[in-house]
Specification:
binds adenosine-5'-triphosphate; 14 helices; globular; 2 domains
Amino acid sequence: MNVTPGATAGHGAASITLEGIRKRYPDGTEAVRELSLEVKAGELVVLIGPSGCGKSTVLRMINRLIEPTDGRILLGDDDVTRVDPVALRRRIGYVIQNVGLFPHQTVAANVATVPGLLRWPRQRTRDRVHELLELVGLDPGQFGHRYPHELSGGQRQRVGVARALAADPVVLLMDEPFSAVDPIVRTRLQEEFLRLQAEVRKTIVLVTHDLDEAVRLGDRIAVLSEGGRLEQYDAPAALLGSPASPFVREFVGADRGIRRLAVTPVTHEVLDPLPAGDTVDLPAVALGGSAYDALGALLTSSAEHAVVTEDGRPVGVLSRSRLLGLGASAD
Ligand SMILES: Nc1ncnc2c1ncn2[C@@H]1O[C@H](COP(=O)(O)OP(=O)(O)OP(=O)(O)O)[C@@H](O)[C@H]1O
């Protein structure tokens, strides 16, 4: 989505600041040695890195499911290590891999969990549940009375997101939220989630193993290595285009050129002038669309150029070589 973070933060979204946080588990494991990171209000930041590098530990320190050994965590200007953890968790939505819905409660009751704890009036809760189910694409009349086992994996995941958003939290933490569903459903949920985020503009920290998911969802991506070491913190295109270390280069992999195309828009700068004569036989792509889609259009034709249109009118052509140049890394 890559919108300017902060500028359009949703109502009540708060920045998150991690200052030199450390976690040493009682058995001596140094899960996070020293990490500082700032997430702007309304920004979606993805934490990614190899298994065991400390991603979940970092996430759970933000809502104090795990207490940091050292360092400070601020939500806006509030130091979360100084507030009551239960009150804190009501201000922070939390979505986990298998959602953790209460099996013996209906969908509506699940979504109403935090409003119930906050003792909202019944009608306000009912209205909010209705609004949220619609927001996540579930018809409240059809799904509100079902139980979790009567839903598909993707539907359960949506209920999990609706529940996390119910009391309008200032921050949303998501630990592998889409990994339990199959790849096709996952892609659809990711797209819907981006639409939802464009509407609510929460500050979100999302943990994933999946680089494609990170690139698709993140305004910025934090790549961590063992011990919660921050290897690079950048927008997806910058991360893929200029990996900051051999670790990151290896982590983002050899196919990062292709991934980079997915986050690079076709702009006026890369166009050549329209050739004389007819361009109707050339594949057409829209200005502002992704270079990856343009590559797809070129690969399914034998043409050397795609014609680029703006508001339906041709404004130039994009050559194969220019297109492939867009995927080449800057290093
Ligand atoms: N309760 C605990 N006691 C001791 N060590 C722990 C505990 N929980 C996690 N660890 C260790 O801390 C390190 C970081 O774990 P964490 O779950 O944060 O990593 P992760 O990056 O989220 O991993 P994954 O991607 O596999 O979920 C690992 O070495 C793990 O074994």
